[in-house]
Structures are given as C-alpha cells and as structure tokens.
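From: lab user (bench 3)
To: helpdesk
Subject: output format question, protein + magnesium ion

Hello, I'm new to running complex predictions and I'm not sure whether the block I got back is the full result or only part of it. Here's what I submitted:
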Amino acid sequence: MIRVENLHRHFGGFRAVDGASLHIAKGSITGLVGPNGAGKTTLFNVIAGALPPTSGQVYMDGEDITGLPPHELFHKGLLRTFQIAHEFGSMSCRENLMMVPGGQSGEQLWNTWFGRKRIADEERALRAKADEVLDFLTISHLADHPAGAISGGQKKLLELGRTMMVDAKIVFLDEVGAGVNRTLLMTIADAILRLNKERGYTFCVIEHDMDFIGKLCDPVIVMAEGKKLAEGTLDQIKANNQVIEAYLGTGLKNKDMEAVE
Ligand SMILES: Nc1ncnc2c1ncn2[C@@H]1O[C@H](COP(=O)(O)OP(=O)(O)OP(=O)(O)O)[C@@H](O)[C@H]1O
Ligand SMILES: [Mg+2]
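Helpdesk reply: Thanks, we reran it on our side. This is the complete output you should expect:
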C-alpha cells in the first residue's frame, strides 16, 4: 500500500532520514521501532506531507504521493496522529470529532443561504457519527467533557477517534501509547485491532513499548540512523545482532533495551 524508496530528509548537514526504503503491506499493522533519534517521526512527517523530503519517493497504491500536502493525503485516506496530542481544549470531545473535515456543506458560504435544512441534517449525521466513534473507543461518558480536561491517555484515544470520522485507508500512529497507563494502552490496542479487522484499516505504528508492538504488529521494521536496519516478526528482530547493537549504541538508558534483551 505504501512504498518508500531511498528517502532522505536532511536538516542542514544532519541526515535524520538517510536513504530509507520500506513497504507497508495493505491490511497489515506494521510496527516501526528504533532507538531515540533514529528518524521515525521525521519519516512519518515526510510520508504524511508535513515535511518535504530532501530526495526520494513515496508511493501509495502505486501512485507517487511524494510531497503532497496533508489535506490532499487526507482525502486519499492517509492520516497520521501526533507524538503529542493536538486537541481543541475548550471544545467538548464530541465537538473535537465533529471538527474533522469531511466535506460538510456548511463550509461553503452559499449553502448557509440556500441549504439550511441540509446543513442541519448533516450536522445531525456528524453528531451521530461522533457518538458512534466515542462508543467504539469506550469513552462515551466523555462526550460533553472539554477535551483539554481529559487525561493524556484519553486524548490519545480521541486522536485515534479523529481518524475514524473519515474513511481512512492507512493511519500512521506516532507513540499512541506514550505516557498511557496499562489499561488504557490495552484499550487503544484493542481499538487498533478492531479497526484493522472490522474496517480494513492498514496501520503503521511507532512505539517504544515492545509488549504493545508484540500484541499488534507483524511485521516490525527497525530503523536506526535514518535507515531501515531490519524487518521481521518481533521475535526475529529481537534475535538480530545488528538490532541489539543499534539499541546498545544509544546507551542502556534507552528503555526499549529491557524488552530487546
Ligand atoms: N526540525 C528539525 N531540525 C533539526 N533536526 C531535527 C529536526 N527534526 C528532527 N531532527 C533530528 O533528527 C533526528 C531524528 O529525529 P526523529 O524525531 O525523527 O527521531 P525518532 O526516531 O522519532 O525519535 P524518538 O523515538 O525519540 O521519538 C534527531 O536527531 C533529531 O534531533
Ligand atoms: Mg519520534
């Protein structure tokens, strides 16, 4: 579904992404792991149109999508979430979901004059959809809470919920599990699995928690120093000497190491 070919993204002389080539198969939940600073988020930013590449290509279903802006990728069904959740704090969780652009008629000026009934119908449908998403994520009780007042983990669920307001094909998740308690992490994992099985979403998941990766991802791609280093099942990559060295090279402070050892 996604093919990345010899992708580079440099910052001055620093090669954050340094010739990465990889595939994400349709229907998979592909894990992307690697030591801090490996270039994972930068790779996501380039694929999702937030940063132009220095060179290289990104294809989606065979179409060259290199450098397309996020809103065009959004309309093709390519969505991403952020390592740090973005929400409109004073709006309710339901309203946050209703804000996700989906071609509502209300956005066009003439519609506000000629299509009041249609806007009201669409708003009702949008509201019903938002409530369905909140229910799917088991956070219906937060519908009317201001999004700024919910927990960090619940914000991550809301981020995932934003991808469900449209017909996503592939979703890039950047550390949805970071700073989230165990129970909520498993709720997030279940939601990802259900979206994959029931709605056919393809996922690419950056995560440092190897239990989470093991529960969800096959294959797992390891990135180090801006390149793909290895790919396989979690057990295969854990047994790969180059992978162990890449993690060791960053020092034992890296908490992934405990899981890799
Ligand atoms: N805008 C930028 N300007 C300069 N350097 C940058 C910029 N963005 C990222 N980098 C550098 O590129 C490298 C890769 O960063 P990136 O955020 O992609 O890593 P990561 O694999 O997501 O790490 P982590 O697991 O810690 O989130 C880092 O050394 C970072 O300092
Ligand atoms: Mg990152």
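A quick orientation on your result: Residues 40-41, 83 surround magnesium ion (ligand 2) (CB under 6 Å). Let us know if anything else is unclear.
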